[in-house]
Amino acid sequence: MKTPPFRVPLVLVGVLSAGLVFHASAAEPEPQKAAPSKKPKADKPKAEAADKQSPPSSLGKPDYLPEQARSLLRQKMERHGQDARDLMYGVTLLQYDVARAAARHISAEPRIIRPLPGGEADLNALLPERFFVLQDEARLRARAVSEAAEKRDDQALAESYGRLVETCVACHSTYLNHR
Known about the structure:
Layout: H1 7-27, H2 46-51, H3 67-92, H4 96-108, H5 129-151, H6 154-177
């Protein structure tokens, strides 16, 4: 029996959604109690306290980029990250208009241009060529997500979103590892 081709992207969407929902619920502050408890609180074990920490919300810092370049990229990626979160929720919850709008934002985001001949000293010359290839691929894949959302085609939406996330992970790996 063959597995439908959209099953892997659906599983990917499900895992990512569960992770973000878990992250969101773990990050919510506990409601304040009306009256303080009379019992003294025992110190929580370190392992339990570590479980309550939320995962990091940004990538690590690559050693090969100076702070100035990381700062410029961080500004772009913060906007991009919000669009990616909106897209994840829009796709997962089948909110087609939200998914379409977020995918359009991602595909229309200004690109970081490739280094120009003679521009070896430019900050963008520090990024590997694969970064630029994946940036272009992400734009095309975000357009496919937008088109699937426009058509309200759940299978195409899941598949195109899964391919976009694959590109995102590859780009993040390229950025961090300079390959």
